[in-house]
User: Fold this.
Amino acid sequence: MKQEERDKIMLDRKIQDELRAVLGEDGFFVDPEDLASYSYDAFVREFTPDAVIVPRSTEEVSRIMKVAHREGIKIVARGAGTNLSGNAVARQGGMIISFTRMNRILEIDIRNRCAVVQPGVVNLVLQKEAKKRGFFYPPDPASMAVCTIGGNVALNAGGPRAVKYGVTRDYVMGLEVVLADGEIIRTGGKTVKNVSGYDLTRLLVGSEGTLGIVTEVTLRLIPLPQATKTLLALFSSVEEVAETVSAIVSAGIVPTTLELMDRVIIDVIRDVGGANFPPNAAALLLIEVDGDEESVEKQGQKVAAFCRERGAVQVDAAETQEEADRLWQARRSVGGAIYKVTPSLLVEDAVVPVSELPVMIRRIGELSKKYNLKVGVLAHAGDGNLHPDIMTDVKNAEEMERVEKFIHDMYEEVIALGGTLSGEHGIGIGKEKYMGLEFSERTLDLMRGIKRVFDPKNILNPGSFL
Amino acid sequence: MKQEERDKIMLDRKIQDELRAVLGEDGFFVDPEDLASYSYDAFVREFTPDAVIVPRSTEEVSRIMKVAHREGIKIVARGAGTNLSGNAVARQGGMIISFTRMNRILEIDIRNRCAVVQPGVVNLVLQKEAKKRGFFYPPDPASMAVCTIGGNVALNAGGPRAVKYGVTRDYVMGLEVVLADGEIIRTGGKTVKNVSGYDLTRLLVGSEGTLGIVTEVTLRLIPLPQATKTLLALFSSVEEVAETVSAIVSAGIVPTTLELMDRVIIDVIRDVGGANFPPNAAALLLIEVDGDEESVEKQGQKVAAFCRERGAVQVDAAETQEEADRLWQARRSVGGAIYKVTPSLLVEDAVVPVSELPVMIRRIGELSKKYNLKVGVLAHAGDGNLHPDIMTDVKNAEEMERVEKFIHDMYEEVIALGGTLSGEHGIGIGKEKYMGLEFSERTLDLMRGIKRVFDPKNILNPGSFL
Assistant:
């Protein structure tokens, strides 16, 4: 956007005063140094917002939205800014709503197995509070120590445990939502079953902040599994891993996690001293099973046998929590390790049917060779969700052209295999241009129509995938 | 509707010929005797359609919808007509699409743990086919031996197993849909994770045939549990049962089913000789647990102990499949038994948070006394889903007035307790007038807006809850 256009939408004094009156001095920011820290998220592009507002209540969000709607000010809701698709930045200017002050767990209701939380609650905080009471909130995005439930709902966040436990959508029972014009509605509630009217709850989950501002979330909790067992299997080829995963899935075994890492990732971790792998380890599968004490032992042995039969060069099973933590260390150190060897990292997010995992991994290898790029593959393999990690430098224009081509070809292949553009990161800025690969123009028109019903002035996270 | 109005929308000869050309003589019916059997469903009201069409393919559905859209002919999709909310009848005339000829299981894809089916596939047929391959399709509406997947999707059908395994929505991965104007779109696919664009799949599930005609469904399958254990606990009061259920749920035990029957139902079954209960049995809880062999034994013992601690006068555990069938017999005989003692049956469908189950059951008892009605309570108690069975005579106008008042007061109480108007039967004809209890006018406007986006001419199951 050109500077003249930006100036036009900058907030005039009168509106600033009006918003400040709602939010107080400590809830409204327009100073460049304050705005700077809200100009980026975990995606690679930066946009400085015109203001940042930090409401304390649904009531304040509603009052702000009334002003924004009247004035046509764009609004982007933001949790911890960990998202990888550019959904927490003000692409077209306007205001960022930050939920750092709406971060309370309002209730953990054991009798109805649910929690009622504000959007700014950190995922791991909720997990820990539920655990104290013997209950479990399964969705575990990699950023769970900082990312918020509001962001999880907006992006329908998943994580390693999704293979057994599903994604955020599967846990959202009800929402309180402030609409574009400030009106407050509620959807769903504390009942698991609900077929009354259209399912607005699940329409809002994963809508990337484009349909409404979520101000309260009712989440289903499940009983905490008694025991967990972690295994690490090393293979001499990624194809063997992919075949093993496919075999485990079709045998009807449901591990809690089935995390795959390929040779590129393993080498990076080895190079930065993140873990000690034998030299013939070219691919790795990190497996967790959970359940009753006895069933966990059995499942573990079954999975280990599967791995050995399919060529694993080494299978380690953790006997203690410390050993489990050691096995997880490699997986957890990936992000940090990669940033030590590359200036920029693009984490892609694609899903293929599990049966196509071997094909897709091979294809990613071919494409990275073709475009001469360093691409590692991490995958939540059990549900066919691949995260190709493109190690690049966004300042290298020539390389970025090759990156673009690689990404395009990759998603073309993903769709050809019956997959989808995103499993858990969302479309956002990065992938809007590929929507036409997955959806017909008519389907996109239906989505645009829904957007207009909720947000006729197009002020909620505009410039998104629609 | 008056006869003059009906005549206006009757199909003219030219359109009849056009439709017959698409469908063939054996796919298009306008004779009164053919129409008669499509004039009712399991709800209590009858409406004769203008025509019944029986397509063989998505292509044919698309061609029919093009004609219907052009001519403004109303369309109601129908599976087996077992639904209890009046959703499978032509309330405003027009044509019924029957899916009896689109009843093939197209694929059971074990590698991706899913099935691809046409809408006319009978639920139990799919369950059996999946079971043969060691897999499980859990949704089990009471009518599963005849009801179809298309109807299950339209109403988001549940069933006894929903307490552990969820409802139809939790298994729908993808859809093929013919839109109101005949265009064909696809949503979702064979991937479990998908956060690409708005979740049209789950918006369509439970939309009661108002947004599109589903012509193909991709359903998730899960591994078949190794073992099942059935228990029947008899109590001397329904309050004890409700408290037991609430205690089981908050203790973190997840039985597969937790079916409750109150004294009225038990007496009916006893009277018609459907089962032999001791005289002090005033309420019953039918429990099923599943999982590994060992875990099933343990769970069964735990649940039995819970029941005894809370006052069960008798707890029977089935040791064989025959014994389990015998325990289920009472539950399965309810429908038949009730029709022996009453001319008409209204099966209501309400959900409250599980913690409110004791309150709600008490309240239903009070209301049936107040309005002098015979109302039995069946409940999928584990998820707070109540089916009050109103035994009445729809031809008795005076009694029907009291029935109306009872239903109104009951749903008012349900909503006051944080519940919802429908857990698995849908809104349809019966409950449209109560939508204002659960939803604000604004929320209903959003739903109406969505309806207009999908069906601007309002030809799909019109006169529904919007």
